[in-house]
Amino acid sequence: MFGSKEKSRKKLADQVREALGSPDWLESVTVDESGRAILVLLADPADPAAAEARRIESEGRAELVAGVQAVTSILTAQAGQAAPAVPAKTKINLIPQRTPAQVRPADGAAKKGGSLHASGVPRRVSKGARLSDEAMLQGAPSQASEIPPIPGIARILVVASAKGGVGKSTIAVNLAAAMAKAGMKVGLLDADVYGPSIPTMLGMQDAQPKTAASKKLLPVEAHGLKTLSIGYLSDPDAPMIWRGPIVMSAISQMLNDAEWGTPDDPLDILIIDTPPGTGDAQLALAQRVPVTAALIVTTPQEVALADVRRGAAMFAKTAVPVLGIVETMSWFEDPSGERHYLMGEGGGTAMAIKLGLPLMAEVPMLQAIREGGDAGTPAALGGGEPERIFRALARTVAIGLDALETKPAPQIVFED
Ligand SMILES: Nc1ncnc2c1ncn2[C@@H]1O[C@H](COP(=O)(O)OP(=O)(O)OP(=O)(O)O)[C@@H](O)[C@H]1O
After folding, report:
1. Each residue's pLDDT tens digit in the chain (416 positions)?
2. Which residues hold ATP (predicted)?
3. Same domain, yes or no, for 203 and 125?
4. Is the same domain home to 37 and 178?
5. Using an 8 Å Cβ cutoff, are 405 and 98 in contact?
6. How far is the CA of 384 from the centre of ligand 1 (A)?
7. Does 19 reside within a domain?
8. Atom of ligand 1 at shortest distance to CA of 172?
9. Are 261 and 147 in contact (CB under 8 A)?
10. Are residues 284 and 139 in the same domain?
């Protein structure tokens, strides 16, 4: 039996469907508790312009239905539809995002769990000063980014892997959790629209983002993180064969139509768990989102390392700085303490040297890491070895990000 609230939401969904003319391409309409209508629209991936037009028109019509508070649409392609060729794109020169000085006072961070900032002589940056101005004075590139920053998000870190199943989402979730535990304001965006796993890894499979008074999506809060995932908005069993421009439309909605933070109180960092691979979806993301830096996740396996080279080349092409490589599933330690290198040994180090990138961490295979992912509680918060490993990774990443913003990497502190 439906409750009366559920009944009226269903009725509203029917009204929205009617307002749109019940076309074949309208796969589903649902209305959540906050009155947000979620439209799933079938679109032809070969014609992204028409798909975008369909989305805009549908959202416009749905918004006019009395009782609808906000609208989110998800573009999806029917299984079996051909993927388009990657459209030629103008190269966008992307330099690290230079936002107003939004780094927390180092002593404040220290109080909450240890400094995450680069060591060195502290430099005083007056409140509101642009780090880019500081950076320019120190010889950093003077070219301005062509991609406008997103208000309310100080920096964006993409976690990428050239291959699926290497443990990328596990690293993204645990890194985010460790940074939050250290006192940073952290968001986690699951852009792995092919197989969103973040809701499960955070134990939030049944969560539905609510709508703010501004009609923007309110990220789901879990384990000290603000999170959004296409998995919160769609039926996990629905066929979703996303392609570059369509993936981009979904990601851009989650990025821009959500209350991550405000210009006065921004997220310190938004971590994006990207879809695996180095194809059109990843390229579109690197070209259109104001990414501060990327982290590449790999296993020590030879075959994965060949892919890492491709991933690094892709980021180089789009001028996104790669902070370094995280090798995961590096070894398994048996109860006697002996390490077994099930996937090869030293591959990540060799690749890091070859590419001239730092090896940010070697994460062993740990039962607690897998169990944490399955149980929805990041192992980075559970104490012991996993917590130590991810805290160290969080610190290394924070230092790497600081170093990008000002050269040489100073400790940023606000003037009182
Ligand atoms: N260091 C680790 N120790 C133990 N298990 C791990 C480790 N890293 C990942 N796993 C497990 O491996 C599996 C795959 O990991 P994960 O989902 O993070 O990979 P992925 O690269 O994000 O995959 P996809 O390509 O599907 O997005 C999960 O069951 C996860 O718990």
Report:
1. 456 788 899 999 999 999 999 998 898 899 988 888 888 888 776 776 777 778 878 888 898 888 988 888 877 765 444 333 322 222 212 222 222 222 222 222 222 222 233 232 223 333 332 322 232 233 222 222 468 889 999 999 999 988 888 899 999 999 999 999 999 999 999 988 777 899 999 999 989 888 888 888 999 999 999 999 988 876 656 555 555 566 677 788 889 889 999 999 999 999 999 888 776 667 778 878 899 999 999 888 866 677 777 778 778 777 788 999 999 999 999 989 899 988 888 877 887 887 888 999 999 999 999 999 999 999 999 999 999 999 999 999 999 998 887 543 333 332 32
2. 162-169
3. yes
4. no
5. yes
6. 19
7. yes
8. 18
9. no
10. yes
70 φ/ψ angles, rounded to the nearest 5 degrees:
-165, 165
Are 280 and 319 part of one and the same domain?
A: yes
Report which ligand 1 atom has the smallest distance to the Cα of 372.
Answer: 31
- ipTM of the complex in this document: 0.98
Residues lining ligand 1, CB < 6 A? Answer: 161, 164-170, 192, 195, 197, 276, 328-329, 363, 365-366, 369-370, 373
Helical (H) or strand (E) element with 27: strand 26-31
- If asked whether residues 187 and 226 sit together in one domain, one would say yes
Residue whose entry in the numeric block shows the structure tokens 């852009």: 191
Q: Give rounded-to-5 percent helix, strand, coil for the chain.
A: 35, 20, 45
Nearest CA to 289 out of 260, 318, 327 is that of 318
26/110 same-domain check = no
Check the annotation: does 215 bind a ligand.
no
Query: What is the domain extent for residue 113?
Result: 106-414
Same structural domain for residues 295 and 410?
yes
Q: Which two tokens stand for residue 2?
A: 């439906």
Q: In testing the pocket of ligand 1, which one of 170, 201, 242, 271 has its CB within 8 Å of the most ligand atoms?
A: 170
